[in-house]
Amino acid sequence: MRTYLGYITISLLVPVLILFIFLSHQEWSLAQSPYHVLDERIPVESIELAQNSYMKAANGKVISEISTGEKRTYLKLEDIPLFLENLFIVTEDQKFYDHAGIDLSGISRALLINSQNKTIEQGGSTITQQLARNVYLSHDRTYNRKLSELIYAYQIERKKSKPEIMELYLNAIYFSNGAYGIEAASQYYFSKPTEELTKAELAFLAAIPNNPEYYNPLEHFDATKKRQERMLEQMVANGALEQAEYEKLIKSTIKLDLSTPVDLHPDYVTYVHQELKNLVASSEGLDKSLQSTDVAILKNAEAELDKKVKKLLNSGVTIHTALDTKLQTQSKTAVQSKIGVNDIEGALVVIQHHTHELVSLIGGKDYKKNSFNRAYQSYRQPGSAIKPLLDYAPYLEETDADINQLVSGASYCSNSYCPKNYSGNSYGMVKLRTAFAQSYNTPAIRLFEKTGMETSFKYLDAFDFKKVSKKDHHTSSAIGGFEYGMSPLELTNAYTSFHDGNYQPARVITKVTDQEGKVLYKWKDRSKEIWNKRTVAKMRQLLHETTLSGTARKAYFPTDYVGGKTGTTNDVKDMWFVGLTANYTTGVWIGRDKPSNLQSIYSHSPHLLIWKDISQTAE
């Protein structure tokens, strides 16, 4: 009976065993190796440390250091003194070149001390573990973090060579006061590059990362100096430093020479950041999505753009700009001196029309970085400054009329809209050149009507005014009555077309390069013809006569060419002058942020005097 039951049991268990083997084989075939899991979960092939980026003026000088959180300038290992490398190995990880990222004896020693004190007093971390902590993990003193640190360190050792790990480490560690990596620390504390530091200065900086708060030399200089001496003493004990040199080094005077980040010309720099976003968006094909009326699409595009720009600025790029630093300084001085200390503001834009480069931009009388920039963010009524673009040039382009042709300057009234000339007078038949130079309103409206509203706006649309729309297609626009108006940058940019008839957006960024000088981004604008040569020649004569005998006489100065057009809005709330010289197109706007009457300064013509100062300088 027992035999019989045994056979039955075996016969029942065999299928179960077969099933177990089958399932085990399936699981085994699906199982991944530990290395594969590590590579999938902890990809460390490319460790990218955030670095400072730089903005340069046309003369190559740095005008702004850009940091998105960690101030760092990356150095190759060959550019870092061997003394510093040896110092960290002796004091932090003597078995660095022998272990695989983990020093078991160091961990055992740390565990013993921690268990005795019932707190985490020592970490026993290798240089590789410290790198893992700085790049991937927090600095919390917990066992969970410590375990993660070990795993990350092991993975880094699998993928990186010892020199690569040392290079990353010396660039990753924190030296307090926002300085990450040895080069940033050297520049901040001593105002010179790492290669120029003495051994005593190198050892002093090396004392900081062990406890950046406690060894902050700005608050605990003596503690930092004592640790420096202990570290040098360790080098002597390990045969890495001679006693005589040790005594010399600890007696060397450490004198801090703090540097401040370069952050000049805030008006211009703020606009460069805005244009950088536009350049990246254009180059990465995000333009259409950023103009979408679908909120979800727009938000996703904005998030994607912010991510790309941040990654770019973290990669240590150089943004090359067209800034003329001398002209920028003089522009600021001119705006401040001619407006005075009151609540009246000003904005100024200078464009080199041969290159279509924006060489100077003033966003306010006393502009603060990242605040409201009136040069490109303020949209104001243009007044008569719109007449060349919307009335006269389109009329000349369509009719090829002579500037001595007569036009009525008499009173005008249409459907209860009855604008007057600024003087209040009614003129008879006047020449186009006279009407333009004296900025009569009724002749401009009549030319606008003769050309046709839609045709006139077709020319204006070519300049891509952001806030000009179909709502502005009415008669009052002929003399500056827009719903929102335009920015000083937009209006000045449009006037560059009177140089040679072509229009192209003015840019501040000439190129963006990486650390090897490779061009990453560059504008690919193409100019488009707006006016033919005959129209340009006539418009330049009209603009010139305005400075000779018209409303802009105070802007005139003898030179190869000078011409422009004034603009004053109702109740003198805005004062404009945009004009050209042989090389530059410059626009000036003056007004209050909350529009109100400027009659008290109108007779002094500050907008014309500012323009004249800058244009004479730029020549």
Automatic annotation (TrEMBL):
Identify the main location. membrane
Task: Please tell me one Gene Ontology term that the record gives under cellular component.
Answer: plasma membrane
Q: Which GO terms describe its molecular function?
A: penicillin binding; peptidoglycan glycosyltransferase activity; serine-type D-Ala-D-Ala carboxypeptidase activity
Keyword hit for Cytoplasm: no
Q: Which InterPro entries match?
A: Beta-lactam/transpept-like, Glyco_trans_51, Glycosyltr_51/Transpeptidase, Lysozyme-like_dom_sf, PBP_transglycosylase, PCN-bd_Tpept
Q: Where is the Glycosyl transferase family domain?
A: 59-235
| Compartments it resides in | Cell membrane
Q: Which reaction does it catalyse?
A: [GlcNAc-(1->4)-Mur2Ac(oyl-L-Ala-gamma-D-Glu-L-Lys-D-Ala-D-Ala)](n)-di-trans,octa-cis-undecaprenyl diphosphate + beta-D-GlcNAc-(1->4)-Mur2Ac(oyl-L-Ala-gamma-D-Glu-L-Lys-D-Ala-D-Ala)-di-trans,octa-cis-undecaprenyl diphosphate = [GlcNAc-(1->4)-Mur2Ac(oyl-L-Ala-gamma-D-Glu-L-Lys-D-Ala-D-Ala)](n+1)-di-trans,octa-cis-undecaprenyl diphosphate + di-trans,octa-cis-undecaprenyl diphosphate + H(+); Preferential cleavage: (Ac)2-L-Lys-D-Ala-|-D-Ala. Also transpeptidation of peptidyl-alanyl moieties that are N-acyl substituents of D-alanine
Print the keywords alphabetically. Carboxypeptidase, Cell membrane, Cell shape, Cell wall biogenesis/degradation, Glycosyltransferase, Hydrolase, Membrane, Multifunctional enzyme, Peptidoglycan synthesis, Protease, Transferase
Q: Name one GO biological process term.
A: regulation of cell shape
Organism domain of life? Bacteria
Using the record's annotation, list all stretches that form the Penicillin-binding protein transpeptidase domain: 346-581
Q: Which family does it belong to?
A: In the C-terminal section; belongs to the transpeptidase family. In the N-terminal section; belongs to the glycosyltransferase 51 family.
Q: What is this protein called?
A: Penicillin binding protein 4
UniProt source species: Peribacillus simplex
